[in-house]
């Protein structure tokens, strides 16, 4: 099963990707997390992996040549073959227990050009990625909706949309839903992520709005641990209520797919 996590900037995509990875690993799946955000670098830390693996972009010759190379089918071995996690060289994979991480690429220099080659690489990678039965891939997308324009969701089974408690975030989520419905994704889940404390009255309003648009509503409670990690970035761990809510989401994903 291939899952993507998208949503407005700062809505909690990376946090949700990491929480879900942990939950599926506890359910005894091998999880491959794909960092497809070209700007933020913190996902490996959310997974408690010591160092960020070398981005795949480096394996295929660096950003400058990637677009040309993607078109050159001959000789482009890695992306030519069906990709299995065990075939990814050690340098390009971070590991922690049952969780593996690959990083697509990061913008490193000014004037190095747009992030399109990274989008192409994510798409190629997901297209060729051949998962075993007990394996789940979770892609942490860049903020917003550009990845839909690139057709990345053609190779994703489940689209998860992180929604923070704001009107704008719900708007972005609705756009993502519309785009996901046009893709090959079989299931769409909206998850309200309380990345700030809100009172019961606002909670009720937000949940009503999301429920009205998405049907089922899942939510992740506001958590001091997560907020604290976001500031000091020490070892990531979640509280019981957060873990329970992610568990409910994971169970539903497995049930419906
Ligand atoms: N449930 C939560 N409770 C408290 N803080 C949270 C929660 N979820 C996320 N945060 C905080 O909100 C911030 C944004 O979260 P995160 O980085 O996961 O969002 P994102 O959507 O991946 O952001 P970006 O668009 O920049 O990639 C982080 O500082 C994180 O620690
Ligand atoms: Mg992120």
UniProtKB/TrEMBL annotation:
InterPro entries linked: CobQ/CobB/MinD/ParA_Nub-bd_dom, CooC, P-loop_NTPase, ParA/MinD_ATPase
A molecular-function term among this protein's GO annotations: ATP binding
Domain named CobQ/CobB/MinD/ParA nucleotide binding: residues: 5-205
Highest taxon in the source lineage: Archaea
Annotated protein name in UniProt: AAA family ATPase
Biological process terms in GO annotation: negative regulation of cell division
Species the sequence originates in: Candidatus Altarchaeum hamiconexum
Phylogenetic placement of the source organism: Archaea, Candidatus Altarchaeota, Candidatus Altiarchaeia, Candidatus Altarchaeales, Candidatus Altarchaeaceae
Pfam families according to UniProt: CbiA
């Amino acid at each position: 099963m291939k899952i993507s996590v998208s949503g407005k900037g700062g809505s909690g995509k990376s946090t949700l990707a990491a929480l879900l990875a942990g939950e599926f690993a506890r359910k005894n799946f091998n999880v491959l997390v794909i960092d497809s955000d070209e700007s933020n670098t913190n996902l490996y830390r959310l997974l408690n992996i010591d160092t960020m693996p070398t981005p795949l972009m480096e394996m295929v010759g660096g950003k400058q040549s990637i677009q040309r190379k993607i078109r050159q089918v001959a000789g482009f071995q890695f992306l030519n073959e069906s990709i299995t996690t065990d075939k990814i060289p050690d340098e390009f994979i971070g590991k922690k227990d049952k969780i593996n991480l690959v990083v697509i690429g990061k913008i490193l220099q000014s004037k190095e050009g747009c992030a399109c080659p990274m989008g192409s690489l994510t798409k190629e990678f997901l297209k060729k990625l051949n998962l075993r039965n007990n394996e789940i891939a979770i892609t942490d997308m860049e903020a917003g909706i550009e990845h839909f324009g690139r057709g990345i969701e053609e190779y994703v089974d489940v689209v998860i949309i992180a929604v923070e408690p704001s009107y704008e975030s719900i708007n972005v989520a609705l756009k993502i839903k519309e785009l996901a419905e046009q893709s090959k994704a079989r299931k769409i889940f909206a998850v309200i992520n309380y990345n700030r404390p809100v009172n019961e009255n606002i909670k009720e309003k937000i949940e009503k709005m999301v429920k009205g648009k998405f049907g089922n509503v899942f939510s992740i409670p506001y958590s001091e641990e997560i907020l604290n990690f976001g500031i000091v970035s020490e070892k990531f761990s979640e509280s019981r209520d957060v873990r329970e809510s992610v568990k409910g989401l994971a169970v539903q994903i497995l049930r419906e797919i």
